Each structure stands twice: as C-alpha cells, then as structure tokens.
Amino acid sequence: MDFSYYVILVAVSAIIYAGITRFLQNKLVDRSKMEDLQKESKRLNEEYKKASESKNQARMDAVMKEQMELFPKMNKIMLSQFKPMIIIICIFFAVTWAVNQVNPTVEDDLIFKLYDDGSGCDKLAEDGIFTACVNMENENYGKWTATAKAMEGDKELGMNETYFLYNTKSHQDIYTEAGTGTSLRIYTEMETYYPGETVEIFVIPPQGTHEVDLSVSNGTYFYVDLPFTIPILDVQRIFQPHWWFIFVSLISGITISFILGKLRKKK
To answer: N or C: which end of the chain has fewer CB within 10 A?
Structure first.
C-alpha cells in the first residue's frame, strides 16, 4: 500500500471511529436523565446553603435527606455510562490493531533474532551483549531506527529503540519510542554511517534473556507533518499510526460534538 494512502486510511478510520463513539454515547447513555439529576443536585445544594445561612436546622436535615436519596440514582446513571465505554475501548483496540497490520512502513523492516553465542557479529559468547550487523547498501538515506525486544521464551522482558543516521547529518528528527518493561540498552558505535559501511547494533538486555528480537526500519517509518504546531506540546510531527489515529479521532470527536450541539440549539 502506498504510504500516502495509508495515512488517509488511518485518518478515515479515526473519523468513522469518532462518529461511532458519539452514536453509541447518544444511544446508550440517557443524557437527559443525567442532566435532570444534575439540576436537581444543584437545586438541593442551593437550598441547603440558604438553610445553613438562615440556621434552619429542620430544613437542612430535610435537604440532606433528599440529597442522600439522590446519590443512588446518580451512581446508577454513572455506572450505566461504563457500558458504552467498554464497547468503545474494544472498538478502539480492534481498529488500531487492524490499521497496524497493513502499515507499509514495516513491510521492509530488517528482522534479526540475536543470541549471545559468539556467532556472526556477536564477538564473545555469553558476555551479555547481543550484536547484529547491517550493511548499508541501499539509497534510503536519512534516519534509521532499531527496535530491540528482550525475550524469555514467549515472554517479552523489555523493549527499547535507538536511531542512527545514514548518509545525512540532519538532526531534525531524533524521535524514538520510549523503552518499556525491564531496562534494556541498545546503541551503535557511531551516529552517522555512509554507503558501504557496516552498522553494528549492540543490545544489552536484562538477565534471563534467551534471545533478542531486533527490527531495523530500513529507513522507512510512519510520520505525519501537521500544517501547524500543537500548542503546549510544541509538536508538529506525529509518529506512529496509533498516535495519528488518536489525534484525528480526538479532533473529529470535538468537531462532531460542536456540530451536534449547534443542531440541538436550533431545534
């Protein structure tokens, strides 16, 4: 799939998701009942305040009793809102999983299984350092990323990512995914490499690691440059399909809510 089409696919999926989210919230959540209970709670609070100022203990007790009777009703409404949230969360994970499966930027990734056995690029067996070598021969110039996962059988112990530059010295894009799980170190000897050179990627995983799964981006990875900088966050480039999906669905959700609010006022 062409990368530009994939970006559009993720955006369209996010817009549809935002629409489904608003539909489920409107269908499964009784907003009018919740609004009525909120108005009633506000009224009781005001009455209690007036009774307190006039030192009318009898009225204060009566209002307090009404408030106590109101709490179970509000709790019931709040609990009912969790039902659509569970459905919405399930849809979110299903859609993000689906769009990740067709991500064209991972199709050309270089995949390695590393063992600390002294074979291949691994210089010394059982020294705690797992090593891979990549010969730089193509023309995918720019930033390359390398992602390592420490494995103990089928269990992932930790993940971390680093980058190196290929035939460029531009440091405008230095983003890498934050490490997860148990501490794992991944690094290269140099920051910049040129055609014909060999990149040695070193991984120092936690104890108990049987093998390391390493993927090298081959110079292609997902990002979208926005036409503006997001305030406060000072972000203009969005990395990873799931962050692009979240961003578009958030903007779409706000837009849909604004439009629906305007339509309700006209009725």
So the answer is: C
pLDDT per residue of the chain (267 residues) written in tens, 0 to 9: 789 999 999 999 999 999 998 888 777 666 677 777 788 888 888 888 888 888 888 888 888 888 888 878 777 777 777 777 888 899 999 999 998 889 999 889 999 999 999 988 998 999 999 999 999 999 999 999 999 999 998 899 999 999 999 998 877 788 899 999 999 999 999 999 999 999 999 999 998 899 999 999 999 989 999 998 888 878 888 989 999 999 999 999 999 988 877 777 776
Place of tokens 């903007």: 251
**Strand-pair category, 180-181 with 185-188:** unpaired
Closest among 196, 197, 144 to 174, alpha carbons compared: 144
CA nearest 175: which of 201, 213, 142, 145? 145
- Number of helices (H) and strands (E) in the chain: give both, helices first: 5, 11
- Helices of type H across the chain: 3-28, 31-53, 57-80, 82-101, 241-266
The single residue listed with the structure tokens 């459905």 is 87
Q: First-to-last CA distance in the chain? A: 45
Selection from 202, 209, 221, 162 nearest residue 181 by Cα: 209
* Cα atoms in the 13 Å half-sphere on the side-chain side of 44: 18
Neighbours of 159 (CB within 10 A): 19
d(CA 72, CA 227): 48
3-state DSSP helix/strand/coil percent for the chain, to nearest 5? 45, 25, 30
**Residue written as tokens 């390359």?**
144
CB atoms within 10 A of CB 220: 16
